[in-house]
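User: Structure with 1,6-di-O-phosphono-beta-D-fructofuranose, tokens only please.
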Amino acid sequence: MNILACFGSGQSRPSTTPSSTRARRSTFDPSKGARVVRPGPLPAAPPAAAAPPRAALAQKRPSVLSSRPNSAPSPSPSSSTPARSQAQAQVPAQSGSQRREDNSQAQRSQYNKDNMRRPSAVGSGSYGQANDPFACTHLTELMPITPIESTYRAHSGGTLPDGIEAPESREQNMRRLYVHDEDRVLLKVVHYGNPTSVGIEFEEGGDWQFKPLWTQRAGPRAQIYFHPSAVKAAIVTCGGLCPGLNDVIRQVVFTLDVYGVKEILGIQYGFKGFVDPKYPPVALTRKLVSRVHMAGGSFLGVSRGTPDLNDIVDKLQDWGINFFFIIGGNGSHAGAHEIYKRCLERKMKIAVVGIPKTIDNDLQLVDKTFGFDTSVEEAQRAINAAFVEASSAYNGVGIVKLMGRQSGFIAMYATLASGQVDIVLIPEVPFVLEGEHGVYNFMKKRLDKNGLCVVVIAEGAGQELLESSGGVDASGNPILGDIGKWFYSQVKAYFGKIKMSVDVKYIDPTYMIRARHCNSSDHIICSVLGQNAVHGAFAGYTDITIGLVNTHYVFLPIPKVIEVARKVDPNSNMWHRTVTSTGQPDFPMVPQKISEKKAQSQPSSPPKSQPTSPKSPVSGSSRSQSPGDPYLAGAIHLI
Ligand SMILES: Nc1ncnc2c1ncn2[C@@H]1O[C@H](COP(=O)(O)OP(=O)(O)O)[C@@H](O)[C@H]1O
Ligand SMILES: O=P(O)(O)OC[C@H]1O[C@](O)(COP(=O)(O)O)[C@@H](O)[C@@H]1O
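Assistant:
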């Protein structure tokens, strides 16, 4: 691939990795870790040698407050002086820059004291607990490192020259630039009032009590664990395309540049770029990436397929990489986690940071992934075209197939957004086509009533109806049968059989929705994710990814987000809203009358501590996922 294809001809070609760096194999040397450039001004870190091993911390994490070496010291109980006067009181005759630093420290301490909320103030739950599932791995748990004062200066773009005293207001601003390591974001914000509440999730054992789960707030820290001049970063984009990839790369590069990092490598064509000598890494600069966000795709290239991860780790070591940013989905994050573990075995001081990319939005825990909004927006164009065609034709039927191999988020959101869809079919909600309660019959009803019918079908829907190849792609993802084309031919056959004249149009915008550049909302998400990935690495975290949780950006441990791919919950409010909007009924696989159902099993009150299946006679879409009662709600609806 011509790496500059998307920039036009006026730019110079990026240089490839210098051979000298390729030849050098770096080994971890604690003494050459982070260099302290300005001793003193920040709260002292605990002695490096005292850093407990990771395993011990995982077992015994008494409090996040004390487990992080860069936690600010607890403020003295007697100190109640306002930040400014306290800071002034502590400053003897000093140089301007020294005084500025001490002021800054005192103000930060006071600020922390004033603003610190202990677990008791925010409720119990995961915060600071020994088994906190969202505690992120910090490099100091793995090896001794001494932090330094952050070089990130978002306000000024650089430090003031020595001898020039900053105005007080600037110091105050700086104090507010950093996120404290103890800041947390609540993961689940709904406190369910009853076990039948829609969307409720049950813990093991059927516990539905509200348990606060806290995630770690992302953002720049006052102390960093790598000196920018010692950082060599690598960025890779893996998996399928997604709008916004270039935006994320751009912001990672910009933010590294603001910290002062000079060496940034772009790995070409995903993980393959580590092992294919035809595509060596390219040197990335602020100038080179400044306009890449205007184009879709990834200017570095993407790929699927799994090269030997040891080869990748060899290359990271050979090239001296100590920041590794992986922009990818579930598969890439699984790879990132494996790479982190292998780096750990080799005692490499490296921050492995993921940035979730999945157009399917199928990543656990986060509000949404970047590019998803854009794909939903682009899908509107296809749905609208289907609607226009259908509404202008005699008995017009428009069918749109949308991406979503194993989850129907794009189809669901695009349907809700468009307001032009009669039926949406997704992988998570099985359906029957034939019969009184099947899809075809409902299509006929809509045609009889409105003269048109628009159907959105996710590519992973109804796979059980098709002959699948059973194969997998290079990354191990299942290769699906083409449900869109198949459904199109079946619809034509059905209406032919019942001798009803229909005009069926089929639109498959699959690659159009992910090949475009992103919309404004995604530009913003990409920017903040990219920036926070760099903040996370400098803050010393590893094996983390960045997510948007309840509108806040957080660091999440990679293992938590890849436990299982996210799917549309048919018991969720959002699915109910969607079918309320389309007006479609359930298309149950095994339609049964409620009387038959009752005869089969005498329902008793649910066993203690077991979820009660929520039933919604209105939408009929609230399907219990418990095996004994699969479609009771659908049966109620049909009566
Ligand atoms: N379980 C896994 N362990 C290690 N690496 C994986 C795993 N699954 C996928 N990968 C790697 O991640 C890359 C992207 O995975 P893929 O499934 O294609 O996309 P995505 O990351 O979007 O899910 C692949 O090139 C492959 O090398
Ligand atoms: O044809 P390709 O490039 O394998 O991509 C198609 C697949 O990628 C997806 O978009 C998911 O990929 P990502 O999770 O990597 O974004 C699926 O919806 C779709 O089946």
